[in-house]
Amino acid sequence: MIQNHATGKKNRDGARKKFDRRKHDMELWDIYDENKQPTGRTMRRNDWHMKPGEFHLTVLGVIARPDGTFLINEIGESLEEAVRREVREETGLDVSKADGGYLFTYRRINPDEGDNYFVDVYRFVMDIKDEDLHLQEEETDGYRFATLDEIKGYAAEGKFLHYDSIRQAFEL
């Protein structure tokens, strides 16, 4: 069930929560140097005015099921505890006891856009069902379970961004 952001969504208790765009846009992200070391400076979320050599950090959680399908959902923040919390907030899944964890980091430099970033990629393996998911609609546009071949097809069609940078998370 996807609801309009203006009307809010129901939390697990059935009460409606309203999405606060101002709070979302005021979120501060740490700025890192080219070696992925914190600079002590911050930037406002989605304020792409990075200087050369400055990066922000994003994490990507890949959730795999034993049947070989994957939950596709991108999240943004830092550190392993944060990725677990973000996965729980955005999907309702508790990955703290799941197999897996941090896999690798990749770096993307976009000087024309002023958006340079590191992505820490995590992979968690757990047996989940549709009814286990409780999506945070402000952060996700939906989901589906997809096979590796389907994901490769989306990548070939340009519908799965940065697949080449993260494919090893799917091909273990």
How would you portray this structure in words?
With 172 residues, this protein is α+β, with helices and mostly antiparallel strands. Helices cover 17% and strands 29% of the residues. It contains four helices and nine strands, in the order ββαββββαβββαα. The protein has helices spanning 21-25, 80-91, 148-156, 163-166; strands spanning 9-10, 16-17, 28-32, 38-44, 56-64, 69-71, 99-108, 117-125, 145-147. The strands form three sheets. Strands 7-8-5-6-9 form a five-stranded mixed beta sheet. Strands 1-2 form a two-stranded antiparallel ribbon. β7 and β8 (117-125) form a beta hairpin. It is globular, with a radius of gyration of 17 Å. The model is unreliable at 1-25 (pLDDT under 50).
Radius of gyration: 17 Å
How much strand content do the residues show?
Answer: 25-35%
Spatial separation of the terminal alpha carbons: 32 Å
Average of per-residue pLDDT values: 75
What does the largest sheet look like? Answer: 5 strands, mixed
So how many helices? 4
Shape, per Cα inertia axes: globular
- Structural class estimated from helices and strands: alpha+beta
Helix content: 10-25%
Per DSSP E runs of 2 or more residues, the count of β-strands stands at 9
